[in-house]
């Protein structure tokens, strides 16, 4: 496979929020209560909001670090690759990795914005959610609209306000909203409640994909208190599987036949068995459980509503026809620990193997463009969008692996947080 000729759009990356995020977007009356970065005495950078301190954990931003230094310890901006939080450097990193397009989930608010939703003052919470969305759409994605797929945070605590925010952000060109894989775990109505109907109606009406990221429900699979972290990491996709089952057997798909969900960072190898299982569950049991998919099998309905995504999933690629070739997307997961940046094209080429060219195109970019209403080719040619062309666009960009060499700020990039604040407010 000629990996240089691939066109890559990742539907799951992450950004580290810059300290200036709220400066230009929060209403003046909330400025003193907006989230702010505090640099601690021990060298960490933490977000303070509503009397909570939220540090950036190491695994959130390990791009460019040797694997033996991965960990979950708190970090400072100086310890991160600048592309984690600087959009201009991010694009250079994307070029160096041969990646054309990217959709970025949040970090410190939680993948579905649950930190903001937990604020006692819901007027403040709404202002912060809207400020975040405006920054993400207008500044982060707006700086390079042919490189980023915008995605909004939801208003988790109020489905009516959530619907209004979906319509507001859709009017700004955003057709993805992140959501939790299990609202009941966060003490909100479950997928089986009709309380969310205003929200489901809004995302359907605006053709907004509900992007459900692994870990957005606040709880991962833990078999025992003394189980090593490897157990949790191995079983992470099972949370996404549970979410898919919840939605499949809810009334959402029948009440909102145009709705679309994306199962982000859940992998795809388990999908064929899951489809067999829901069909087998339906066949002998639907007459007494009351499930009714009409003349369709549950697996057929799944393919109408769900996008599945993988980072490195050879089994899923081999079984792509059992999943549905129009339902599979690739994701890079930059700058998290599972990412293959900057060598993802080469690793993906091995996984794709001898797949047909049409299948490769769907997996690598066409499905993402179609599901998320994203068209980078309005401002660039396909020839300018290949791995080889993008890498040539940022010649000499440093992608070397850098160790901290035993010192906390050994590879500091000279970041002055105060200067950033002054620059944003100038």
Quick overview of this protein structure:
The protein is of the alpha/beta class and 426 residues long. Helix content is 37%, strand content 12%.
Structural notes for this entry:
The protein has one domain: Metal-dependent hydrolases (TIM Barrel). Helix content is 37%, strand content 12%. The protein is built from 15 helices and 12 strands. The chain has a 5-stranded parallel sheet. Strands 2-3-4-5 form a 4-stranded antiparallel sheet, with no helix packed on it. It has a 3-stranded parallel sheet with strand order 1-6-7. Helix 1 (87-96) packs across helix 14 and helix 4 (159-171) runs parallel beside helix 5 (197-205). The longest helix is centred in the middle third of the chain and has 21 residues, at 229-249. 46% of the residues are buried. The model is unreliable at 406-426 (pLDDT under 50).
């Amino acid at each position: 496979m000629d990996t240089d000729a691939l066109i890559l759009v990742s539907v799951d990356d992450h950004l580290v929020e810059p300290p200036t995020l709220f400066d230009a977007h929060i209403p003046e009356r909330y400025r003193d209560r907006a989230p702010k970065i505090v640099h601690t005495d021990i060298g960490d950078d933490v977000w303070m909001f509503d009397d909570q301190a939220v540090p950036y954990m190491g695994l959130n931003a390990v791009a460019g670090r040797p694997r033996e230094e991965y960990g979950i310890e708190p970090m400072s901006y100086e310890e991160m690759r600048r592309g984690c939080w600087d959009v201009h450097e991010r694009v250079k990193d994307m070029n160096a990795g041969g990646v054309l397009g990217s959709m970025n989930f949040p970090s410190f608010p939680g993948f579905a914005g649950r930190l903001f939703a937990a604020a006692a003052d819901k007027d403040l919470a709404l202002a912060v959610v809207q400020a975040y969305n405006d920054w993400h759409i207008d500044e982060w994605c707006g700086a390079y609209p042919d490189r980023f797929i915008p995605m909004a945070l939801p208003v988790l605590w109020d489905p009516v306000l959530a619907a209004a925010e979906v319509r507001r952000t859709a009017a700004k060109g955003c057709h993805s909203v992140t959501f939790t894989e299990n609202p009941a775990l966060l003490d909100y109505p479950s997928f089986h409640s009709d309380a969310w109907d205003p929200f489901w109606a809004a995302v359907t009406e605006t053709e907004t994909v509900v992007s459900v990221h692994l870990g957005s429900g606040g709880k991962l699979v833990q078999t025992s208190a003394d189980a090593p972290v490897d157990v949790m990491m191995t079983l992470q996709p099972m949370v996404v599987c549970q979410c898919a089952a919840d939605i499949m057997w809810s009334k959402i798909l029948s009440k909102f036949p145009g709705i679309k969900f994306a199962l982000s960072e859940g992998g795809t190898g388990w999908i064929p068995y899951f489809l067999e299982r829901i069909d087998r569950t339906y066949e002998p049991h639907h007459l007494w459980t009351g499930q009714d998919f009409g003349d369709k099998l549950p697996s057929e309905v799944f393919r109408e509503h769900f996008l599945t995504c993988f980072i490195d999933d050879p089994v899923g690629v081999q079984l792509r026809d059992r999943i549905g070739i129009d339902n599979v997307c690739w994701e890079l997961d930059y700058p998290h620990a599972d990412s293959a940046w900057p060598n993802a094209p080469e690793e993906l080429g091995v996984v794709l193997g001898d797949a047909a060219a049409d299948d490769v195109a769907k997996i690598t970019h066409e499905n993402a463009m179609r599901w998320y209403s994203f068209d980078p080719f309005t401002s660039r040619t396909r020839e300018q969008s290949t791995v080889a062309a993008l890498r040539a666009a940022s010649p000499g960009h440093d992608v070397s692996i850098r160790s901290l060499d035993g010192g906390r700020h050994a590879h500091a990039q000279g970041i002055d947080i105060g200067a950033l604040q002054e620059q944003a407010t100038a």
